[in-house]
Design goal:
The complex is a heterodimer. By secondary structure, chain A is mostly helical. Chain A is built from 13 helices and no strands. In chain A, helix 2 (28-37) runs antiparallel to helix 4 (52-72), helix 11 packs across helix 12 and helix 11 runs parallel beside helix 13 (235-257). Chain A is globular. Chain A starts with a helix and ends in a 13-residue tail after the last helix. Chain B has 7 helices and 11 strands. In chain B, the strands form 3 sheets. Chain B has a 6-stranded mixed β-sheet with strand order 5-6-7-3-8-9, with helices on both faces. A 3-stranded antiparallel β-sheet of chain B has the order 2-1-4, covered by helices on one side. In chain B, helix 2 (85-91) packs across helix 3 (105-117), helix 3 (105-117) crosses helix 4 (133-147) and helix 4 runs parallel beside helix 5 (163-178). The radius of gyration of chain B is 18 Å and the shape is globular. By secondary structure, chain B is α/β, with parallel strands linked by helices. The chains are: A mainly alpha, B alpha/beta. Chain A binds chain B through residues 24, 74, 138-140, 142-143, 145-146, 148-150, 152-159, 200, 203-206, 208-209, 263, 265, and chain B through 15-16, 49, 52-54, 67-72, 76-78, 80-84, 87-88, 91-92, 94-95, 97, 99-100, 102-103, 127, 140, 143, 147, 153.
Chain lengths: 270, 251
Amino acid sequence: MRTAVFEVSLIAVAGGLLGAWIVLRRLAFFAHATGTATFPGLVIADATGFSATVAALAVALAYAGGVERGGRTGRDLGDSATALVLVFALAVGIVLASDVFDSGAAVDRLLFGTAIGLGGEDLWVAALAAGLAVVATVLLGRAWTSAGFDPGAAATSGLPLRPIDLTLLGLVALSAVAALPAVGALLVTSMFVVPAATARLLSSSVPGLLCVSVSLALLQGATGLYVSLWLDVPPGPAIAVVGAALYATVALALAARSPATARPVALETA
Amino acid sequence: MTAAAVVAQDLAVAYGGDPVLSDVDFSLEAGSSLCLLGPNGGGKTTLFRALTGELAPASGAVSVTGRPAYVAQTERTRLDFPVSALDVALMGSLANGRWWLPARRADRAAAQAALGRVSLADRADERFGALSGGQRQRVLLARALVQDAPVLLLDEPLAGVDPASAEQIDALFDELRAEGRTLLVSTHDVDSARTFDRVICLNERQVAFGEPGPTLTRAVLEQTYGGEIVLLEDGDGPLRAVTVQHHDHSH
């Protein structure tokens, strides 16, 4: 149980920080697809005894690289291509799990995560993701903000947009993989997009967004873990439900307070 | 003779296929101003993107002194972004090449001073998206000032701007030229082009380039705008022109 709390806290730091950038750069759908794209890789790794981390990372990085390449060559992969990848990955994963490998119960764990059976390797990967997210936020935060606000001007001011964008996509891929064991391939977004989307409703500056996003991710992770033990459900869905409830509560509270200025902007994607 | 700050030689620009802009050939002295005229989709923004280096020439060449500051049309910058006017002005300091480090105190002072120059010092902490169109344009100009670029590229800076802001922006243009900076400004307002040193007319190619007086003839304006212009005869005064914009946003 202690391992699970540590694991979820580390993921919350990575997810809270990167989630803020994901929401600002409108990459929410991409982040969601990155998690799900790893599912077939996980099924194969699980059945063959290959390292799940390495398999998932390979798939996630390949996907991120493809998206970046598509965006750079002007052929933006767009929402429909992302949706196609989502459905395809899920379908292939299920076919592999049910007909090829007879994975059975493992599918639940891969899709929705587990609080028990988290190991040292999982913690190390999560710690690495959290550490890198903090370092990248400190070093690249200004550049990411500027590039998200006005890409044209950012490019002319001499920012190396490609490397800094690739770094963000790569970090999202790594952190999604780190979150897989605990929250599962299907609900990775619950730690990456939901806290940041809620924070977006509450903050008017980027540093504020980062702080609130990490705090909400920690709160949501801890509460979700507790609910998952209490109701004996996988942690992924529990964390996702808590996160969605938080978002709904905040959005409704804001709408009730100032109906004229309430803007449902935070969940915009792409 | 003053050195050329911006030169385009037989430039053609394409987005993959056939050129969308060709035959562009002009040279601009440092400290002078150029007005870009042309219909929507005529190539004004494309020329800017070639000058910033974002688009490589399909043929010909461009050269620009230093790293230009580019101010896009305000609609393109995200109004819901959680940044203040000061944050936006401060983005100009990223161009100093130390973008991975936090902003220095000197950078903050420069950003604050730039907001002062566009008369927005008292709005520094206001959210960018909450400002009026004219104020937002002035904040983007402040960002260009912080960048301290020798060449400024401004894409329709006066579109949708209130008269008070427009007056301040015009005055700032004069100051910038006096400092030796080169200004390239695109506009739909043919009459305002007459206040610039040079004018370039674009309609998928360079129709004309030169001093506004002799350049902006009836023939040139009709070639530039086709059916999108109404020319008003005004006795013996200069030809007055009103452009009719079709908003198809195909840049």
